[in-house]
Amino acid sequence: MRVIIIEDEQLTAQRLENMLHKYDASIEVAATIPSVAEAIEWFKSNPDPELAFMDIHLEDGQCFSIFENINLQVPVIFTTAYDEYTIKAFKVNSVDYLMKPLNYDELVQAIEKFKRVHAQKHEGPHGLENLLQSLNRKEPEYKDRFLVSIGSRLRTIETADINYFYSAEKITFLVTKDNQRFPIDYSLDKLATTLNPKEYYRINRQMMVKLLAISNIHVYPKGKIKLDLVPAMKEEVFVSLDKVVEFKDWLGK
């Protein structure tokens, strides 16, 4: 997939690109552009990408000026620190509207949403706008149970009964409320796209936890955060430093 990033904050643009490559290493970022004027010139002289990521406030104005100057048909995922432009965004090719600081799980959901739109667009005569309206009316579907093996038997575990997931020695385990542990055939990356992001958050490379599984949060100097989980882990559980801001944002939603 070929995409373009229109963002005037260099660190934010780089972080978004890293998140995109984490999701799919084959994604090609055709350009990173900081301004309305440069974006207009780029679209005039380059083939359209499959998807654009746009900050609303750029160094020389709002990104909506791009649509006022050229007939842009590229689907857009807006990324912004302001929520007052939602309606305006959905009038100009918007697939989704993500608030900063960007959350990886929400980004994944937005890309998956774009893929569904893209697939349906080529299956029928409906326009992108009608497809987007249809998708926006639907609640996302999340996994509600997992199949596990117990010796020669199979058993289903309801997601509501799972408190966290962790990875050890390249195997992913789920842990239930009553401290039962089972290996599953899912990576944490895959779980990030199948679990409700309001309930579960990937706190580091090895763990994804349920909000209700957190019994205590300990804050240390330099922003370090340790969690007490139920049931307890043998090892201490820390939130990755690069996820602390997103984690706090998740807690407050």
From TrEMBL:
Protein keywords: DNA-binding, Phosphoprotein
Membrane-spanning parts: none
Molecular function GO labels: DNA binding; phosphorelay response regulator activity
HTH LytTR-type domain segment(s): 146-253
Pfam families named in the record: LytTR, Response_reg
Gene3D superfamilies according to UniProt: 3.40.50.2300, LytTr DNA-binding domain
Positions where 4-aspartylphosphate occurs in the chain: D55
InterPro entries: CheY-like_superfamily, LytR-like, LytTR_DNA-bd_dom, Sig_transdc_resp-reg_receiver
Superkingdom field: Bacteria
Ranges where the Response regulatory domain occurs: 2-115
Name this protein carries in UniProt: DNA-binding response regulator
